[in-house]
Every structure is written in structure tokens, then in C-alpha cells.
Write a structure and sequence with these properties.
It holds the Pfam family DUF7154. This protein is an alpha+beta fold and about 350 residues long. About 20% of the residues lie in helices and about 35% in strands. The protein folds into three domains: about 45 residues, no CATH class; about 170 residues, von Willebrand factor, type A domain (Rossmann fold); about 110 residues, Sandwich (Jelly Rolls), CATH 2.60.120.380. It is globular and about 80 Å long. The protein starts with a helix and ends with a strand.
Length: about 350
Amino acid sequence: MNMQSTISHHLANLFDFIPSRNEAGSGATGKCSSGKWSVTDDRQNKHTLDKLLAFCYYTKPTRFCLPSEPKLFLFAYSRDFSWSDLDRIVYQFSRSPNVAPEFKTFAHVQIDAVEQQEIHFSENYTAFYESIRPQILNPPPGFGDSVTGSDLTNVLATYLKTQPRIACGARIFAVLKRYPNQEDVSELVSLLQQYRITLEITVSADTIGGDGVDVVYQLTGQTYGIRRPSRGDANIYYYTSQLRHNQVSSYYPVFISNVYVSGNGSITLPDLEIPFDGTYMISYGYVEKAKDIWNATHIDSDCEWINVESSEVLHAPPWTFWRVGVFASELNMTRGLYHSKFNYQFRKNDEMRIQLRVHSLT
């Protein structure tokens, strides 16, 4: 066997051991010493080679949504709510004249109907609001049971896969009266991540069906979304009331982290990559019954960011109430990589599920 065939044989053995290139994390690391390559593949198998050849293949990159791209605002609401409850919810939209210029399309859709409803699109905010009211006056037939789960996931998946109209950077606000049923939403989560969509969901405390509480957490916790605390039907309008100054504001998501904390301590977060210089909003959302725990036991909390290049240490200012279920603060940050930490102090050891988000306001 000549040298070339020996090298080919060794390389074949090496790449037989390395997982398929379609598997996450496939690859190998190598060190050259005394004219030989010592290589370890992803399965921790070791190889000694005379030569190591490298090649690459093209993979289509995930779309990178820019802050300046035209955006969509979508309001999804369950037809399970009574007309009077929906009227109070929708009325709040008439009180929000401030619209960020990036939002070029506005849409609404009724969910949880026997037949999946079409999304109604408008090119301006006034037309969007005025087109909702006729829909709530003539709701389509509903499920009529407490077994069927919400079809929010089907509506969103259908839209993103078949007609992703200005989906990049979209904001979706959904109010539900039933949970989705347990299902695999990994594909939908991937689409929400790809398009950097901010999905905000609140489910009425007077829920009438569905068993997929965890599905809602997956849709918001694994994306740039927020799961808001529950309220009863009579007070569900409070969310659109509090959102009226922010519902169509534009901010660019750059970081997500979900943590469970209790008592006092610190927790290391994933590194934060700041894409450009500017002002960033650090938001801190509590979920479910965490509101009561927060109000009764919270003493102090603080996000700490350390710039890897300059070693500059930044601290989020004291949390201020921003919207229902969310506290937030603003911080000027420069482009670069930051090590992240969350410091917290509570009077009790009740466990808190916290959603941490960072958005650009620039």
C-alpha cells in the first residue's frame, strides 16, 4: 500500500466515525506535532494521520432579519370569548395612534373555530381596527366542547409556511380561552426563531379546554416571545389596555433566556451578542402565579453584562414597570460579545419562572 492509499484509508476511517453532516455539531479537532496529525472526532475516537485535508459544503443560512425591514402586526383572538369581552379587548386598539414606521401591514384572525379562519390583512392601522369589529359581531361556529385544544399553532404554522407575508420581525399578540393540546411544535418554534418573531400570549384564567400548558411555554420560552400571567375573561381587556402605547412599537430581539430562581443568588446566562451600538431594552417577565410571589417577596434583581473585549461591566438599572407581567430597563451597549449573569434576591424560596429578553430600541 503506497502513502496516498494509506492517507485515503485513514481519512475514510475518520469520516466514517464522524456523524452525518446533517447532524448538529458534526466535525473533528486536530493537532499537528512531529509531522503527524492527531485528530479526535465528535464521538471521541482518535486518529493519527500523515495529512489532513479539509473541505466545506454550502448550507443556506438562516435569514437575518434587520430592524429596518417592513414588519407585520398580527392580533389573534379566540372566538370562545363572549361578544362583550371581545368588544372590550378590541376597543383598546382604537386608543393607540402611535405606530412605528417599520410596521407596514396589520392583520387579525379569529382562532378556535370549526373551520380555520383566514387572516385579514390591512395596509394601515385605521383599516385594521375598523375591520375587526364586523368579525366579532358575526363569529364563526366554535368547537362547542372542552376537549378540543386551541388551533393557534395550526393558524401560525399555516401562515408562516404558505404565505410568510412580511413575517420578518413580526409581532403577534394572541389572547386565548383554551390551551392548545399537547403536540410537537418544534417546527413552528423553528419558524418563529428564523423570522425573529415576537409572540406574546395570554390565556384566560377562565380557560375552557386544551391541556397543552407546556406548549404555550415552548412557543414563548424557546423564541423571542413572552407568556403573560392569566386573568379572568372580565379583565382580559387589561392586556390590550396596557399594550396600547407599545403594541405597534418596533424593537429588535437579540437575546432570550428562561430561568428558574428562588431565594438569593446568581445564575450564569448564555453569552449575549450585541449586533450594533445603541440602546437596548432588558425586559424581565414573570409568568403565571409569579406575579403574586414577585409583589410579595421581591427585594432586588439585576442583570450583569461583561464586555469580553474591553472587560467593561454593565448593570441594568433598577427594574421599572413596563407592561402587564413585564418589568424593563434601558441600557446603552456597544457592539460585541458579553458574558451574562442574573443576580436576584427574594424574601422567600418560592420558585419563580422568569423570561429574560433583550431588544434593540435603536
